[in-house]
Amino acid sequence: DGGRGGRGGRTGSRLPLIAAVGVGIAVVGVGAGAMMAGGGKDEDKGGNQPVSATAPASEAASASASASPSADPAEQQAVELDKLLAESGTGRTTVINAVGDVKACDNLPQAAKDLREAAKQRSGLVDSLGKLSVDKLPQHTELTTALTKAWQASASADNHYAAWADRTAGKKGCKKGRAATQPSAANRASGTATKEKAKAAKLWNAIAKKYGLTERQPTQL
Prior knowledge:
Keywords: Membrane, Transmembrane, Transmembrane helix. Residues 36-78, 172-195 are annotated as: Disordered. The chain has 221 residues and is mainly α. Helices cover 74% and strands 2% of the residues. The protein has a domain at 73-220. α4 (92-103) runs antiparallel to α5 (108-131). The longest helix has 46 residues, at 2-47. The chain starts with a helix and ends in a 10-residue tail after the last helix.
């Protein structure tokens, strides 16, 4: 009996020790949990720190970009008209040579052909001018009127010169190596063309000077 009582006493003494160990573990667990919880809050605070904002790229680009100037519609029209005027003087040498041949009773069939081609080219210029937009140009009505009259008169003159070449190639058309008749109608039309070209050149050159385009003499139109 005494032995059993001794074992019972030892068993009883272990119970408080086990309970104390359990309480210690619980305290440690609570402390660790508190530390972890505190660390989580710090991390949350760190995660919520404001980030310095930068200006959007589009705003920076718009601030630095300069607005490109819009094209001047009058200048665009002047450039297109300049191209047409460059074509107007191309047949002048051919016409002068053809008229010279008729006067000298030389190469008459070719002269007549060249003159009719020149007249056709002048009429084509009038048609092309009518298709161009020139309403933004200064004094555009006066300019287009002068050009139209000049080219129409030139076409008329060239056709009259061609008819003169035909007459000169006919019977008694030449006398002592010269044309027997004078192209009166052609000369009158040519005079009208010269007068209108002078008007057109003056109006055009004011525009050409403003936009840095080619200035032209009346004989180049």
